[in-house]
Amino acid sequence: MSLIVFDLDETLVHTCEREMKEFSRFRVPVAPREFWWCHVRPGAIEFLQHVRKRHKIGFWSAACDLYMAEVVDRLLALCGIEGTGLKMNQDPRWSAPVVLSWSRTKCRKENGQYVKHVPLICTGATLFDDNIVHSQHPENKGKVLKAVGFRGHPEDAWMEYYTHHWDTLFRLLRCDHAVAKPVAVRKCARSE
Ligand SMILES: [Mg+2]
Known about the structure:
- This protein has 192 residues and is an alpha/beta fold.
- Helices cover 32% and strands 23% of the residues.
- It has a single domain, classed as HAD superfamily/HAD-like (Rossmann fold, 3-Layer(aba) Sandwich).
- It contains four helices and ten strands; from the N terminus they run ββββαβαββββαβα.
- It has a five-stranded parallel sheet with strand order 6-5-1-9-10. Strands 2-4-3 form a three-stranded antiparallel sheet, covered by helices on one side. Strands 7-8 form a two-stranded antiparallel ribbon.
- A hairpin with a 2-residue loop joins strand 7 (108-110) and strand 8 (113-115).
């Protein structure tokens, strides 16, 4: 079974100081003694439950451990997933329903940005993330499904879209990656 790793901010949730009452939400620590509101993207829980039936799932955020751990715990509780015994920043554990929870410490800093190198996870892992820093990184080619970002728009329906079209999107990502190789080989042969 393949592994899908989810980004948190602007992919599954939107966190800010202001409380937005139209969303399911909870308080999260963003610094010692400082709490902000974490708003769950509409349809995100149903989306996670849908993908979980097809793949192993994990989470990887460029945020700090404190924040990451709290958001993942709350999302898993909302999904009805309990008792995973998930530890922060451990290597993938394939027997558990949720096999990965990585924070900023697993990112590499490049040009002032925290970059997620997907091959670090394991062969065949796919990242679902709104940030093009990860999807456009050469090491991540064919390994990232780019999500449309969520910043608290009340009518956001992208999770519903991803749930309905997940199988096709996942297949297309693999297909796109597969056809990229023969093109590169042809170009190379022509230049010889
Ligand atoms: Mg993000």
